[in-house]
Specification:
InterPro entries: PLXDC (IPR031152)
Largest sheet: 6 strands, antiparallel
Order of helices and strands: HEEEEEEEEEHEE
Number of helices: 2
Oligomer: single chain
Distance between the termini: 23 Å
Shape: globular
Structural class: mainly beta
Family: Belongs to the plexin family.
Strand content: 35-45%
Keywords: Membrane, Signal, Transmembrane, Transmembrane helix
Number of domains: 2
Radius of gyration: 20 Å
Protein name: PLDX1 protein
Membrane topology: Single-pass type I membrane protein
Amino acid sequence: GDVIHRMLTATQYIAPLMANFNPSYSPNSTVQYLDNGTVFVVQWDKVYLQGKEDLGSFTFQAALHSNGRIVFGYKEIPVPVLQISASQHPVKAGLSDAFMVLNPSPDVPESRRRTIYEYHRVELDTSRISSLAAVEFTPLPTCLQHQSCEMCVSSELTFNCSWCHVLQRYL
């Protein structure tokens, strides 16, 4: 989106491993990305934890596929993630989404108050993150995948949606 706010970055993320990494510590450390039109991959290669460089380097990646599938791959995790300190930076792994609403402030009518609503989060069990491990997120079927009334009516989704003839889509 076009709104950047410090709290949004804490609640909107796709994070194979979020910690206090320092990519500038070593000339061999890189953060690279690739987009071939069907998959977008970001790789953190040989990155070190700030102030804990003696623990070794981490190499991991996130792959976002055009069909909605997300894969986290862990090549090199030199220490258990549970041992990484969260005192300087949160340690997280998973997915989170949120949105921000600007509401008029009751005290000052011309100003707006920002309210952030986190509506979904998937947290990985960080004790399971290790070298040569992978995690795959597969999207569940939704209303939006149906392109016709017939597909909508015959679907076996478990939530209450219906076809809108005016909009020509499932709601």
